[in-house]
Specification:
Shape: globular
Largest sheet: 4 strands, antiparallel
Strand content: 15-25%
Low-confidence stretches: 141-147
CATH topology: Jelly Rolls
Number of helices: 6
CATH superfamily: Jelly Rolls
Mean pLDDT: 83
Length: 175
């Protein structure tokens, strides 16, 4: 199971089509900085391919993100400066969604907004639980970011459907 299930597991096919129609496919070359710490960003990113390192303002690596991860979600929610930098560890592809376009859709389409914010909340809850484990506050267990075995099935859809949706996004953005 992959983290992409949190997002695509809550959205409908038409939601995914909207994202791919209104988002842009952005290639991020290995070593390129997608997000700089302490900046204002107007874009939400969904990692479609590749992997990236997340680092503090002091350069300490705090996470690795890959397919299905969301970047820029905190700035979308509260408009604050970015809390970390994100640099591509390998050639990557992200779906970039302009904040104004996404906000307009969220304001106009209540169903989409409910599904999108639920997906975002589930994703952030997973990330927080994993952070707590990684910091050693959960019975001394060490967490594996890619291990989703303890995630309730009601929070996701089947892997085949999520993979098909990622493929649809990539094909739509490529053509």
């Amino acid at each position: 199971m992959r983290k992409v299930l949190f997002i695509l597991g809550q959205l409908t096919d038409s939601d995914v089509d909207w994202l791919s129609t209104h988002g842009s496919r952005v290639k991020v070359a290995k070593g390129a900085e997608l997000i700089k710490h302490g900046m204002r960003i107007d874009t939400l990113y969904i990692v479609l391919e590749g992997s990236m390192a997340v680092s503090t303002g002091r350069g300490m690596r705090i996470a690795k993100v890959s397919s299905g991860d969301i970047l820029g979600e905190m700035s979308l929610v509260d408009s604050s400066l970015t809390a970390a930098s994100v640099m591509a560890e390998q050639d990557s592809v992200v779906l970039a969604l302009d904040r104004r376009t996404l906000t307009a859709k969220l304001e106009q389409d209540v169903g989409f907004a409910a599904r999108f914010y639920r997906a975002l909340a589930l994703f952030l809850a997973y990330r927080m639980r994993n952070t707590i484990r990684r910091m050693g506050y959960d019975k001394g267990e060490v967490a594996n970011d890619s291990d989703l075995s303890d995630v309730p099935e009601s929070n996701v859809i089947d892997l085949h459907a999520a993979d098909a949706r990622v493929d649809r996004i990539l094909k739509k953005l490529a053509g």
